[in-house]
Amino acid sequence: MTRQGLLLVLSGPSGVGKGTVKSAMVKQKIFSFEYSVSMTTRKPRPGEVDGKDYYFVSEDRFQEAIANNELLEYNSYVGNHYGTPLAPVKQMLKEGKDVLLEIDVNGARQVRKLMPDGVFIFLTPPDLHELKHRIVTRGTDSDQVIAMRMKQARKEILMMQDYDYAVVNDTIANAVDHIKSIVEAEHVRVPRVIDDYRNMVEED
Ligand SMILES: Nc1nc2c(ncn2[C@@H]2O[C@H](COP(=O)(O)OP(=O)(O)O)[C@@H](O)[C@H]2O)c(=O)[nH]1
Ligand SMILES: Nc1ncnc2c1ncn2[C@@H]1O[C@H](COP(=O)(O)OP(=O)(O)O)[C@@H](O)[C@H]1O
């Protein structure tokens, strides 16, 4: 029987670098995992591709997905909705694939309740000045939105207490390395592997 894949939840305050770290992990293929493509009512940014970065949908379609229980979790963030389509996640885990969710802290809290076996990784900024600097230099938000994101970030950092691991995103390479170590360790946790050894002993 195929062992279930690991559900990896990467979260943390907006602007900390979740999207950047996820992209680096996807590009470097440091270990094998699938990532969940979220649904959002936000408008695409230049270069973003529908079905790859997000499924960009209308407000009506998003509400329909909620009503039909199509979403594992969802959240509103700075005026837009974001959610994780449930069916593909379930299917990939069943096939034994590790699945990465890159979601905000409210979404992560919902997932923790529904899928407590997930591996919850909190990405932190080195400090709040650096966080603001990253949001400003990304250049995608107005001053008003930046102020809202920073206010939210202060609250969000304290939500770290619900997570299994804290990873500092000082450099992307360091963050990716730490996440890789966490995933490798999670793969060999005894509760996860013991059945293989029971079978080995019994068959011998
Ligand atoms: N709950 C939840 N949050 C999401 C999902 N997809 C993206 N987010 C989060 O929504 C927030 C805003 O995302 P986005 O507009 O792409 O901006 P950025 O991540 O700050 O570049 C970020 O904190 C994302 O991690 C999702 O499916 N569910
Ligand atoms: N380790 C890092 N060092 C410097 N800048 C970074 C680092 N990680 C991300 N950034 C930059 O910070 C900004 C926010 O990153 P992003 O991935 O959009 O954050 P999030 O998805 O958490 O909101 C981007 O401009 C990105 O290039």
From TrEMBL:
It is found in: Cytoplasm. One of its GO terms (molecular function) is GMP kinase activity. Keywords: ATP-binding, Cytoplasm, Kinase, Nucleotide-binding, Transferase. It holds the Pfam family Guanylate_kin. It is an enzyme of class 2 (transferase). Transmembrane segments: none annotated. It comes from the Bacteria. InterPro entries: GK/Ca_channel_bsu, Guanylate_kin-like_dom, Guanylate_kinase, Guanylate_kinase_CS, P-loop_NTPase. It catalyses: GMP + ATP = GDP + ADP. Residues 5-184 form the Guanylate kinase-like domain. Its EC number is 2.7.4.8. ATP binds at G12, P13, S14, G15, V16, G17, K18, G19. Essential for recycling GMP and indirectly, cGMP. PANTHER family: GUANYLATE KINASE, GUANYLATE KINASE-RELATED. Belongs to the guanylate kinase family. This is Guanylate kinase. It comes from Lactobacillus colini. The gene is gmk.
